Amino acid sequence: MEVDGILSKIDDTLEDYSMPKRVKASLAQIKADLIKPKKDADVVITSSIYTLDEITNDVNISMHAKTVIWDIISDLEALKK
Question: What domains are there in the chain, each with its CATH number?
């Protein structure tokens, strides 16, 4: 999957009213990091995966939100070289 596809999934998730604010804030930051020109994309991707993984470990996050986040994590892992 390309970065554009991941950004599209993030946009869809940001528009989902059932997503907690904490998840939306993290996804908005990850989107901004992915859009910025960068020297080392692997560092940005790894940092994004780590941030999302921390969110999925929160017991207060719904299973729906966790499933969406895991899908995005999977796509990010596919981008790593």
Answer: 3-79 (1.20.1440.50)
* DSSP code at position 17: T
Tokens read off for 22: 């904490």
Smallest CA-to-CA distance from 26 within 59, 75, 73, 81 is with: 73
Provide the residue type at 11 as one letter.
D
pLDDT tens-digit series, residues 34-77:
998 777 888 999 999 999 999 999 888 889 999 999 999 999 99
Q: What is the pLDDT of residue 38?
A: 72
> Residue holding tokens 């499933």?
67
The reported pLDDT for the residue numbered 1 is 64
